[in-house]
Amino acid sequence: MKKVARFLIGNVLSLTLVFFAAGCKEKKAGIPTVNLGTSNTSSIYNPSIQIANEEEFFEKHNVKVKYIPLDRDGQFEALATGKLDATYANVIPQLSMGAQGTDITAFAGTQGNGMIVVARPEVADRLKDLNNWKGITIAVQHTTTVELIARYALGHKYGYEIGKDIVFKSFPDYPTAITAVVKKNADVTLTSPQYRDSAISQGLVFLFPSTKFEPDYVCCRQFANGQDFRNNCDKYKQYIKAQLYGYKILTTDRKKAVDTLVRASGQTEEYVDRYFYNTDFNGERTYKPDPNYNGTLILYSTMEELGIIDGKRALSDFFDIKVYAEALGEVIKENPGDSFFEELWDFFLTHNDKHPDFAEAKKLGRR
Question: For the residues 182-192, what does the mean pLDDT come to?
């Protein structure tokens, strides 16, 4: 983050993000392009985007997407300086950037959930109930989403005093944290599902997916360069609409989604099916495009409690829910009676109502 900090765009702590109450009405001439930062290490990234691309939903919604592969730090720097329009990376570094004043805007979701909990066999049965966690030590890879969610849930929902009733020990990576549990230097670890088989082979026991701490918790979010988002909100509305149609295929048509993602990624059918649909493998990972402001606020407030950020800048200063609401509202009107999109609207209502602009967003979505 120190490297990213050099690219902060002025002091925008007092920046006010203004959108007309009428929503994204004005369209600019020509077909707009979203310069999107993507992973340069994986052929599978955001499935809704990949399906939307393969099915030509972006073209149908009059928006182009240019894919620019970069490493994670490169994406953050490029987004801050306007060389990228949008990314869909891990939420914690970008929340840190926004808290420091970087002109970026969160506007949609990418990924939620996706981790698991494993334990020493001697304590596994007792620890299947989170009410029995007093006195344990948790090994974690430092400052991951699942660590923050666990801290929030155990402290705020279960009433433990973190640091006294429950101790977190930080390690540089997931395998090292697993080793700490194997050597009895910790009782449980919060880890990626890709290490499940390795942990079990070393004598540890799978307890449960991380959703037991908090259902539908956020992981990765979609962020835009703040200036581009404010100047081109219709572009982002169309970009979201295309993703919503891609997400419907991912959720309701498994065979078509797998075939499409095999074509997009070059991976095998078996791998793609396991990656997206096998909950034992993916830790109940979800890919809802909903911004989920409420869930992101949990992370942001926990980061403040831990001193990762100072909390002087409100999350809502760089988090927009109105463009997504308007996009979803238009998709619902285009598909009357479609229960899938109606359920997404219900999810939006229950997961974004803590945002100061919630009432206005509701009107935009259902006007």
Answer: 98
